């Protein structure tokens, strides 16, 4: 065991399907954690936020992916290349239509008819997923400088996915500019005011 927590290898490794719903950003389904009959139920259960629950599910799902990998991978040997492999695997479960260059609807945000273009993971879902996995890695004892989710290759891949999906759908992903609080312009001095020099 390294300085950070490896995934529990005793979990069920038969689950290979991952469900990402389009309406819910990166909604992974993973097997529930094994229940322990030795621990008594607590009277005040700790409720986690939606983000924390999602991060835990994502972390468990990535661990499941590593265990199902051939040959199985330990987290300590995981690199940015393995993260990219995982993201490409997730595309199998995507629900976002991404038009190819040959499609007549390439660049149209609302195509008028169906087409055979592939379904992919939406860029926003992948971006949010990587953010959660990056945080989970460090929360489980990983060092920021060895975090495979923060690798340059992963950042470049996400940028490429964002740009290609923007072109294919005719939608630009511009960073939203922060709205500055609007202050009313200063009132000019009244006309009858004398200016002393």
Automatic annotation (TrEMBL):
This is ALOG domain-containing protein. GO terms for molecular function: DNA binding. The keyword Ligase does not apply. One of its GO terms (biological process) is response to light stimulus. The lineage of its organism: Eukaryota, Viridiplantae, Streptophyta, Embryophyta, Tracheophyta. Keywords: Developmental protein, DNA-binding, Nucleus, Transcription, Transcription regulation. The gene is Vigan.08G142700. Residues 36-45 have a biased composition (Low complexity). Residues 1-29 have a biased composition (Polar residues). One of its GO terms (cellular component) is nucleus. It is found in: Nucleus. Residues 50-177 form the ALOG domain. Coiled coil: none annotated. Residues 1-54, 164-197 are annotated as: Disordered. PROSITE patterns: ALOG. Belongs to the plant homeotic and developmental regulators ALOG protein family. InterPro entries: ALOG, ALOG_dom. The keyword rRNA processing does not apply. It comes from the Eukaryota.
């Amino acid at each position: 065991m390294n300085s950070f927590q490896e995934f529990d290898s005793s979990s069920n490794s038969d689950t290979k399907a991952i469900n990402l719903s389009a309406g819910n950003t990166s909604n992974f389904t993973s097997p529930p954690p094994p229940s322990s009959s030795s621990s008594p139920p607590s009277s005040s259960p700790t409720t986690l936020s939606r983000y924390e629950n999602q991060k835990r599910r994502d972390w468990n799902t990535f661990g499941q992916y590593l265990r199902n990998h051939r040959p199985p991978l330990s987290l300590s040997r995981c690199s940015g290349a393995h993260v990219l492999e995982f993201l490409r695997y997730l595309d199998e479960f995507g629900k976002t239509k991404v038009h190819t260059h040959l499609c007549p609807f390439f660049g149209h945000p609302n195509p008028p008819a169906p087409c055979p273009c592939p379904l992919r993971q939406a860029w926003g879902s992948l971006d949010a997923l990587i953010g959660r996995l990056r945080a989970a890695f460090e929360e489980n004892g990983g060092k920021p400088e060895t975090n495979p989710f923060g690798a340059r290759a992963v950042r470049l891949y996400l940028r490429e996915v964002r740009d290609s999906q923007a072109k294919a759908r005719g939608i630009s992903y511009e960073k939203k500019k922060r709205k500055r609080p609007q202050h009313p312009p200063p009132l000019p001095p009244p006309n009858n005011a004398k200016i002393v020099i």
